[in-house]
């Protein structure tokens, strides 16, 4: 079931992110990310709030700016900001709506957040003779273009400083020729400077100095632009409204001296070949009405690497023909179960003897329980898992799961051995076997005590699951060679991607009954508040009910039409592509 709280939070988080991470045509970049220090482990970068036609034409912004969404937008933003405050600052006055609106304009300007890895030499200096870490490294930094926001930024910074539980110690100093401030609290130290167009903050003095030097064009450090992982990811970082880059650390960067690292950790990381993954990178682009996310996990996908956990994908997933004209949501994924198993086996059996023995014992126990070797059992599923929903109000009774299987006899054997006395009944109809499963209770010598049932249908190539047997029959008995507008549209969307996909999703917002769904979610939130075991949970559920009550449900189909996406693996890595219109 898609929980209202979860979907509402996700949708609104998407709206908030879209309204934050955007580029106006006038925006200036605070710094070229490629000029950051070569030791940058990650950065998250955007360029101010859009305006004019860019904002007007985008579906997400149209929803966010809709007057009928205003009360819900304001209420949610207030909750988002005020609930984020720490318990120690709970006695401070909350932001008013006017203050919130004022501070929100800080997001008009460009902002970059990132982190720099600790140099090995620095790490060695801050450890004791016994090797105990004296102080944890925090390489986070913050860079903001404060043009036109100088007074407002200063006001926001003063407010943040006043909300701490202790009075900070402030020390003036000069770093890289720039007047700066050292702010010391019990929780740690922060360095802050405002100069020219920029505001810079960091937790480490060395990181603070490096970022100031980058901003002033005086850095002597090797830059990120020369790092192999960044160069590999560069095509995914050019253009767009938002970009992000995460460098996956190698074993050498995890341990100061790999030769001295604990043997189990060294063997495990070598065995899973963590170094095969180089980076996670991507960007978001506004393409007229669409919001488009492109990204990838990049690295060496040669067989035997950590990339084995991702499937190669399929051109014609077995679940696709079951998409019907009334399908609202369809999602399909391909998992490489044998690859996951072999990766774990390789990692665990190359560890110390007791680790290898543990895995051998686990395999033996699994074989006894399943009635076949674990490797054979994992080969029974094809790795395909799909979800289908046809209810305009997301009723659980109309949600269907589809699992690909290689052969029916072994699938039934595994079902019987794993589910055991939870199987309430089993019957055959043609080439389909229906199983009724008790999710609670079981059968024993004293009798039967079962409730909360689920239903499975096992065919020669697929296993279907649903909360009602009527839903199973609807799909099992329907023709699988369909030619409907929806099926053709899904195929047209899939055709934009490579032939073999290991993931695909399609969500038609226009088929949702928004007024009925809103009423259902409000009722569920109120019911949850009444049964909540804590005041905090009850308060959260009540806020959710109030939030949804303030939304005109017609505003969603007015602006949101379709969401779709896919993922695939090739020689460069695993790619993902999502768009919302």
**pLDDT < 50 stretches:** 1-27, 255-259, 443-450
Radius of gyration: 28 Å
Number of helices: 20
Class of secondary structure makeup: alpha+beta
Whole-number mean pLDDT: 81
Helix share, percent:
25-40%
Termini distance? Answer: 24 Å
Major sheet? 20 strands, antiparallel
Shape: globular
- How many structural domains? 2
Number of strands: 20
Q: How big a fraction of the residues is strand?
A: 25-35%
What's the SSE blueprint?
Elements: H1 4-20, E1 40-47, H2 52-57, H3 59-65, H4 70-82, H5 97-104, E2 110-116, H6 120-125, E3 140-145, H7 150-162, E4 169-175, E5 178-185, E6 188-195, E7 198-202, H8 205-215, H9 228-233, E8 242-247, H10 251-254, H11 263-272, E9 277-287, E10 290-299, E11 329-334, H12 337-349, H13 353-370, H14 374-379, E12 381-389, E13 399-405, H15 408-419, E14 423-429, E15 432-444, E16 447-458, E17 462-466, H16 469-476, H17 485-494, E18 503-508, H18 514-531, H19 535-549, H20 555-559, E19 562-570, E20 573-580
Antiparallel strand pairs: 1-2, 1-8, 2-3, 3-7, 4-5, 5-6, 6-7, 8-9, 9-10, 10-20, 11-12, 11-18, 12-13, 13-17, 14-15, 15-16, 16-17, 18-19, 19-20
């Amino acid at each position: 079931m898609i929980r209202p709280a979860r979907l509402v939070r996700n949708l609104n988080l998407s709206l908030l992110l879209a309204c934050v991470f955007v580029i106006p045509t006038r925006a200036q970049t605070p710094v070229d990310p490629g000029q950051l220090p070569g030791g940058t482990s990650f950065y998250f970068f955007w360029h101010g709030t859009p305006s004019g036609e860019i904002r007007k034409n985008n579906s997400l912004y149209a929803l966010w700016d809709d007057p009928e969404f205003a009360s819900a937008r304001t209420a949610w933003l207030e909750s988002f900001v005020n609930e984020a405050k720490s318990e120690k600052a709970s006695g401070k006055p909350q932001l008013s709506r006017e203050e919130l609106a004022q501070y929100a304009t800080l997001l008009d300007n460009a902002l970059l957040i990132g982190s720099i890895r600790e140099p090995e030499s620095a790490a060695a200096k801050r450890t004791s003779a016994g090797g105990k870490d004296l102080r944890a490294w925090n390489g986070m930094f913050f860079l903001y273009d404060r043009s036109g926001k100088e007074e407002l930024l200063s006001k926001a910074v003063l407010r943040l400083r006043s909300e701490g539980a202790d009075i900070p110690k402030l020390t003036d100093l000069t770093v890289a020729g720039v007047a700066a401030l050292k702010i010391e609290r019990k929780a740690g130290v922060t360095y802050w400077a405002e100069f020219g167009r920029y505001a810079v903050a960091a937790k480490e003095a060395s990181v603070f100095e490096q970022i100031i030097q980058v901003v002033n064009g005086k850095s002597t450090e090797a830059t990120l632009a020369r790092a192999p992982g960044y160069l590999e990811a560069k095509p995914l970082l050019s253009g767009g409204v938002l970009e992000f880059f995460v460098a996956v650390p190698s074993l050498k960067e995890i341990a100061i001296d790999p030769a001295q690292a604990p043997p189990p950790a060294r063997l495990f990381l070598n065995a899973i070949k963590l170094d095969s993954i180089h980076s996670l990178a991507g960007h978001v682009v506004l393409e007229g009405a669409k919001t488009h996310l492109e990204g990838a996990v990049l690295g060496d996908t040669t067989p035997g690497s950590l990339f084995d956990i991702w499937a190669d994908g399929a051109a014609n997933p077995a679940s696709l023909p079951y998409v019907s004209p009334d399908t609202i949501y369809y999602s399909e994924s391909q998992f490489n179960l044998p690859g996951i198993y072999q990766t774990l086996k390789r990692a665990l059996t190359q560890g110390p003897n007791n680790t290898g023995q543990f895995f051998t014992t686990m395999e033996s126990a699994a074989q006894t329980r399943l009635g076949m070797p674990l490797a054979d059992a994992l080969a029974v599923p094809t790795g395909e898992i799909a979800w289908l929903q046809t209810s305009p109000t997301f009723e659980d009774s109309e949600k269907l799961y589809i699992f690909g299987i290689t052969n029916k006899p072994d699938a039934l054997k595994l079902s019987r051995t794993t589910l055991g006395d939870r199987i309430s009944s089993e019957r055959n109809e043609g080439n389909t076997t229906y199983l009724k499963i008790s999710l609670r209770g079981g059968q024993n010598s004293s009798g039967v005590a079962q409730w909360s049932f689920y239903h499975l249908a096992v065919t020669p190539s697929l296993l279907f699951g649903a909360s009602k047997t009527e839903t199973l029959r609807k799909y099992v008995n329907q023709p699988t060679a369909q030619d409907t507008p929806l099926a053709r549209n899904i195929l047209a969307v899939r055709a934009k991607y490579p032939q073999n996909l290991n993931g695909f999703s399609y969500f038609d917002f226009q088929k949702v009954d928004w007024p009925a769904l809103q009423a259902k979610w409000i009722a569920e939130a109120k019911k949850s508040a009444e049964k909540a075991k804590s005041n905090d949970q009850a308060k959260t559920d009540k806020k959710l009910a109030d939030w949804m009550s303030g939304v005109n449900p017609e505003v969603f189909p007015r602006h949101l039409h379709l969401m779709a996406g896919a993922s695939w693996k090739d020689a460069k890595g695993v790619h993902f592509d999502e768009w919302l219109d």
